[in-house]
Amino acid sequence: MGVTSSSSKGIADEVNMRSDQFPWQKIVYTNLEDRPEKQRVYFRAAVEAAVDGLWRELDALLPPKVGDSSTDQPKEEDTERDDELLIERLCEFMKGGDCKESFKALEDCVKESGSILKCTKHLPMLIKCVDAHSSYYKPIIALGESTVKQLAKDVEAFVLSQKEPAAMDD
């Protein structure tokens, strides 16, 4: 899964987060500290931008119910509470479909371990279930795919921009 000059496909074209071959472990355990500072800064910024975009899209997809405290005018210090409420709405949505057991297994693992990064073994089962019940989970599938593809395009553009100066030196 790399960028080659002989192929018209790039990283973004090859990314399929629902595939059994998706390199969850490689992505989760990649040590950015081993990378040059410029790459670390860029990758962190790209991931933060992707997460921010994902949160905004999730909030639009799963709006608060009328009467929730989160429908009031937001205050600066309420962002953590807003995130908690959004997570609650996402969990409610996920448990509302046929994948509630596989989602609950992931949720329990995250609560127990304190990190989703330690729960990647639950992702393939959840993803297969979500795919099998795609009519209900379609909005989440589309949002996840678009986020991953955009992040892959951003990373690919950065990788290519780093190779261009070297190619000009030849």
TrEMBL record:
Residues 86-155 form the GCK domain. PANTHER family: F26F24.3-RELATED (PTHR34357:SF2), F7A19.14 PROTEIN-RELATED (PTHR34357). This is GCK domain.
